[in-house]
Amino acid sequence: MLPEPLRPLHRLARNLRWSWHPETRELFESVDPEGWRESGGDPVRLLGAVPVSRLADLAEDRSFLRRLTAAADDLHDYLTGPRWYQGRVAAEDRAGPGASAPSGAPVPSVPPGPSAPSGLPAAIAYFSPEFGITAALPQYSGGLGILAGDHLKAASDLGVPLMGVGLLYRHGYFRQSLSREGWQQEHYPVLDPDELPLTQLSEAAGRPLRIPLTLPGGRPLHARVWHAQVGRVPLLLLDSDVEENGHGERDVTDRLYGGGSEHRLLQEMLLGIGGVRAVRAYCRLTGHPDPEVFHTNEGHAGFQGLERIRELIADGADFGTAHEAVRAGTVFTTHTPVPAGIDRFDRELVARHFGDDAELPGIEVERVLALGMETYPGGEPNLFNMAVMGLRLAQRANGVSTLHGRVSREMFAGLWPGFDPEEVPITSITNGVHAPTWTAPEVTRLGARQFGHLPDAELWELRRTLRKRLVAEARQRLYDSWRQRGAGTAELGWIDGVLDPDVLTIGFARRVPSYKRLTLMLRDPERLMELLLHPERPIQIVVAGKAHPADDGGKRLVQELVRFADDPRVRHRLVFLPDYGMGMAQQLYPGCDVWLNNPLRPLEACGTSGMKAALNGCLNLSVLDGWWDEWYEPDFGWAIPTADGDAIDETRRDDLEATALYDLLERRIAPRFYDRGPDGLPGRWIDMVRRTLTTLGPKVLAGRMVREYVERLYAPAARSHRALDPVAAAELATWKSRIRDAWPGVAVDHVEAHLTPPAPAGAAELGSTLSLRVRVRLAGLAPADVEVQAVAGRVDDTDRITDATHVPLKPTTGPDAEGRRLYEGPLALDRTGPFGYTVRILPTHHLLASAPELGLTALPCDAMTEAAGVLMR
């Protein structure tokens, strides 16, 4: 029990804002510097271990109490004052429904309030299987979880009314160590929720809240709900380790990404179905607004849409109506660029867990299966695909970089047959990172604006300070690792000479699936050794990363790298640091001069580690993949050339790209780092650091990312959710059913085109007009149900229309004796080169989010109706 004057410490420790607020961390460190280090920077553990005598002294320390009051007041202002989102709310209130405030609009002094106007949601529920908030709450494995944590933190900073939903894993993700032979070993320490910055949710009477699920045969699965406060954002974590459950059920939330298929399915049912039930309970108990928008971060939480459908069916809706209502308010984000990265389950396994004696008894099992089965060309008809279900349950979807959006549209194009991949309704919002979490305190104190005016010598000294800190951290971690590997103290004197704060330092740290190519740098070991040991321009490399426990191939890559790093000739220049996590990363990113990323393009969805490095003035050296593909400039780093093409085999590709990497290091990167002017400074290198900090840094922020989600996805989803009241949702469901029934009879019968002015065969003048007359069959549908379009653009070498424009044609007559209708319209020939067009029919309705939403289109038998060369005169 804290003395009364120190009670505010409890609230400061329980709100995870301390994890990104330097002043609060410094306050806790001053409580007991040694205890702070031993606790790993965890204030909850710290306060549980501080001697009573020390607390008594602090309770009478006026200087400490003033700092405590200032920190508590600052947190109160942060939690209650208006921020960016509240400014948007106020601006829309003034402008009227549907208006949008400019992104840079000032924030007026208005209370945050529980509700929002028609353009912005009152609350958003954000579901993710993992959240990387702080090392003190180890519920993450890699980029997906770190991104989710940064999303919550940025939403808090902006005042966005987000609430996170996830699972609490008893063992978190594994801790990594190495055997003497360099083989990865996994350890699963048990986490005690009572020692974490969490509070268990209870009913009003004080009884712990329980969330129920039903397993096959009617067996119950119970979960308790833990609440973590992430600034302004509540995070709900479900935990099945409760006494009411049997042994098997208690283990559902044992490990992140552990177990077999059924274990994973149960985790995802608890996350999605149980997560919605936890949200409803939290809102009931606290008065928090019910979410209007549900955001699924990857397919793991896709079952949340089914639970919301069940809720509406219980209120009297039919399945189709409930499906449309749920889709309207759902956003789905895909993070994987390869089908193998998606959770897929056997059809019979999924079927067994739903129905009358299992979960969601109000929904027919076939309805559940239809949402996830790969019933499209190229799919596996017996597999239930969580990403496919996510897309079918969401009206809005996105990838996490521009390139990844394009890859996702191609990968999931089978869900929208008849449409070119570029028309598939999956947009992209490029990920960002939370600067206060990932930026070194020295960099944060200076701020981006000052870097433009900071003298070269001071900027260079800052970089050396960060590099020196990384060297000290790496030596300590390397020493600890070798002791775990069985080495005695007498063997480890060499570690004092590992790394050099004045040598060009390269960082490489991430998960270790094969496509990230941890060992590409080892392709030519002799050449790498020459670069490491160059007498005038040496380099040093710090490597970290975990292979999945079941991935022996990834473990072999780790072992190969470790064995090279163990070589006495180079072990002072290349180190592998085991147990990569947030704590290590926060030292690693600032201390590196170059951040290396060499995945197989285009298999890196985004790759945010390089963004975190850039925020600290580290230059990127990467394959043009993920975010680097869209924001690379020579001012910010270097692009590793890729050997793309189907004809090249994997071995040859790796050889070519490794050679390109060595050439860049030897001929461009190292010379620039060591090229010193008369003042002893590498002026051109410092210029690149400065431009990275001032120009690239603002682009990669999570605040920019969350604002884009609000403006481009959350606000439109909230408007759709409100528009689809029970009557409108039923109308849309009925209309879609009618369209699907009639569509086999919809057809383009005949197309005529007349060129004005007339031109010689095969050519036309730029600026000419094609007058189109099209006869169509609508199979009983009304003109208001469809849009007849001309699709025109350049023709590529395969006779595909590219860079297309879409021109609606207008009906001119009623149906003729055969039930056909005539549509007409002009098509301007406004571009040079080979030109082509076709005509198609699409369903249209004012409640659709996009024209391809139903995946229905009708084309002429010959899709390329006409082609002509357009000539400039």
UniProtKB/TrEMBL annotation:
GO annotation terms (biological process): carbohydrate metabolic process
Catalysed transformations (reactions): [(1->4)-alpha-D-glucosyl](n) + phosphate = [(1->4)-alpha-D-glucosyl](n-1) + alpha-D-glucose 1-phosphate
Keyword set includes S-adenosyl-L-methionine: no
Domain DUF3417: start-end pairs: 2-137
UniProt superkingdom: Bacteria
InterPro entries: Agluc_phsphrylas (IPR011834), Glyco_trans_35 (IPR000811), Glycogen/Maltodextrin_Phosph (IPR052182), Glycogen_phosphorylase_DUF3417 (IPR024517), Pyridoxal_P_attach_site (IPR035090)
Region called Disordered, residue ranges: 93-115
Cofactors (names): pyridoxal 5'-phosphate
A GO MF term: pyridoxal phosphate binding
Keywords assigned by UniProt, alphabetized: Allosteric enzyme, Carbohydrate metabolism, Glycosyltransferase, Pyridoxal phosphate, Transferase
Pfam family, one: Phosphorylase
Keyword Ribonucleoprotein: no
Gene3D superfamilies listed in its UniProt record: Glycogen Phosphorylase B
EC number: 2.4.1.1
Residues bearing the modification N6-(pyridoxal phosphate)lysine: 612
Biased composition, class Low complexity, residue ranges: 96-107
Family as reported in the entry's similarity comment: Belongs to the glycogen phosphorylase family.
Function noted in UniProt: Phosphorylase is an important allosteric enzyme in carbohydrate metabolism. Enzymes from different sources differ in their regulatory mechanisms and in their natural substrates. However, all known phosphorylases share catalytic and structural properties.
PANTHER family to which the protein is assigned, alphabetical: GLYCOGEN PHOSPHORYLASE
Name listed for the protein in its UniProt record: glycogen phosphorylase
Species of provenance: Streptomyces antimycoticus
